Amino acid sequence: MVVPAPLRLFKSLSDDTRLKLVLMIMAEQEMCVCEMAHALDESQPKISRHLALLRQNGLLADRREGQWVYYRLAPGLDPGSLAVLRATLEHFRPYIDLPLQRLARMGNRPERQRLCC
């Protein structure tokens, strides 16, 4: 079980980009860097730096598929952290509406990969 310390959890979520990344990943279950960069209208290096911090702090895990790296919530994330994240997504879903709309305009995953990766 991955147990981020409360301070580390809240510091990880205290940045606008990182919070949106985590919430979008929760909403989509898994996303690649190029999808996130497009949805947030940010550069891939900036997104990658934020993802690295979230991974280091135990919130995210990644997997490589060819040239793409996909991120998801860390398997075994502790129940307290999951509860905070689920409640945040449930109560503040409009916070990520615009990025998710941008993502939806990209189409499904195979189309997304052709568009941005």
From TrEMBL:
Q: Which PROSITE patterns does this entry report, sorted A to Z? A: HTH_ARSR_2
User: GO molecular function of the protein, one example?
Assistant: DNA binding
Record flagged with keyword Transcription regulation: yes
Q: Which GO terms describe its biological process?
A: response to arsenic-containing substance
Q: Which residues form the HTH arsR-type domain?
A: 1-96
One Pfam match, by short name?
HTH_5
Q: Tell me the keywords, alphabetical order.
A: Arsenical resistance, DNA-binding, Transcription, Transcription regulation
Claim: DNA-binding is one of the keywords in the record: yes
User: Which SMART domains does the record match to this protein?
Assistant: HTH_ARSR
Database matches in NCBIfam families: HTH_metalloreg (NF033788), PRK10141.1 (NF007528)
The protein in question is named Transcriptional regulator
Gene source species: Zobellella taiwanensis
